[in-house]
Design a protein that fits this description.
This protein is an alpha/beta fold and 343 residues long. It contains nine helices and 15 strands. The strands form four sheets. A nine-stranded mixed sheet has the order 1-4-6-5-9-10-13-15-14, sandwiched between helices. The chain has a two-stranded antiparallel ribbon with strand order 2-3. It has a two-stranded antiparallel ribbon with strand order 7-8. A hairpin with a 2-residue loop joins strand 2 and strand 3. Helix 4 packs across helix 6.
């Protein structure tokens, strides 16, 4: 009898422990969901189920293929309708997608799907890493693009590369916004529909956008205060070869006071962006009808040369008396540059 009672007590204890473990697992799982930006089925937002239509949705990818991402800051995504092209935006060194909400909102209003993507942009700047070493630039940029070519300069794993993060972000958005048309930007299991994507970025991110346009035929490329990939007579070696995206689908902009201006304009010249007459110069007004400059120099006249490196695109950009960014007209002009069906 005594042994039977002890057995019953032991069974009850085991049941209680098992139940407690299940509850703890669910709680921890919920914490992981919150930490990684995933939304459990029971916790998904209710409403029209259209996801980030017309407003920005912040999320984090967390882990990819079991490897935790670093850095792992908020990505930003939004759309207006299901048929717009995608603007893929890459921030500057140590910057976050959250630092560019004014520009990203402008792209959203102009009918783009928008994805501000976090990626490996920590540590030393690309220009500071490579300086006058022509081969270094492409090695680092390729490594950050797809995780290949690791070196002493950069050792991003494939799981943390721009390509991997992009695919995972699109899968997340397609799952949470099934009516949004996000899935068309990744065809099948691996192929990215670059012809429907405008790659854009600031500083190091703009250099990465230029490199992506070099190795992939993208819809277009926008480079803000970039590429910073020349030093004197030296420049990134990949610029000497014809790229997959023609120059007439690439546009660059910088402020005349930018401390990195000489290195940026050197890159423009090698890429053939400034044409025969040099960059188009303006205060913040867009080019007129019939003009199509591919390199633009603004003259915002605010801030130091160091601050001028960011004033053309970051949320620190000057605001006019109407409460709108003074750069908005130029942003819109750039966003309107790309044909609806590029060859």
């Amino acid at each position: 009898m005594k042994h039977r009672l002890l057995l019953v007590i032991a069974v009850v204890v085991l049941v209680v422990i098992g139940a407690a473990s299940l509850v703890a697992a669910n709680v921890l799982g919920g914490e992981r969901v919150a930490e990684h930006g995933r939304v459990a089925a029971a916790d998904r937002p209710r409403g029209d189920e259209h996801g980030p239509a017309g407003e920005f949705h912040r999320f984090r990818l967390g882990t990819i293929n079991g490897q935790r991402l670093e850095p792992n800051r908020d990505d930003f995504a939004a759309r207006t309708d299901s048929g717009g092209p995608l603007l893929l935006f890459l921030p500057a060194t140590r910057a976050r997608p959250a630092d560019y909400q004014l520009f990203l909102s402008t792209a959203l209003r102009d009918g783009y799907h928008v994805l501000g993507l976090d990626y490996w942009n920590l540590g030393k700047t690309l220009s500071g890493t490579c300086e006058a070493d022509p081969s270094c630039y492409g090695t680092v940029q390729r490594n950050r693009f797809d995780g290949t070519r690791p070196s002493r300069f950069s050792s991003v794993e494939p799981s943390g590369s721009i390509v991997s993060r992009f695919r995972d972000a699109i899968a997340y958005l397609d799952d949470h916004d099934p009516e949004g048309g996000w899935g068309r930007f990744v065809q099948g299991d691996s192929d990215i529909a670059w012809k429907d994507i405008v790659v854009a970025g600031h500083s190091q991110g703009g250099g990465e956008a230029a490199y992506i346009a070099h190795i992939r035929s993208v819809r277009g490329a926008l480079m803000f205060s970039s590429p910073v990939e020349s030093l004197g007579s030296e420049h990134a070696a990949w610029m000497d070869r014809p790229g997959r995206t023609p120059v007439d689908r690439m546009y660059a902009i910088d402020d005349v006071r930018d401390v990195f201006g000489p290195r940026i304009r050197g890159s423009w010249k090698v890429l053939g962006l400034d044409g025969d007459t040099g960059p188009f110069r303006t205060d913040t007004a867009p080019p007129g009808a019939g003009q199509d400059p591919h390199a633009i120099l603004t003259d915002i006249q605010v801030g130091s040369p160091g601050e001028s490196h960011s004033r053309t695109i970051k949320d620190s950009t000057p605001i006019g008396p109407d409460g709108l960014p003074r750069m908005e007209g130029l942003w819109q002009w750039l966003l309107h540059r790309f044909p609806s069906d590029p060859s």
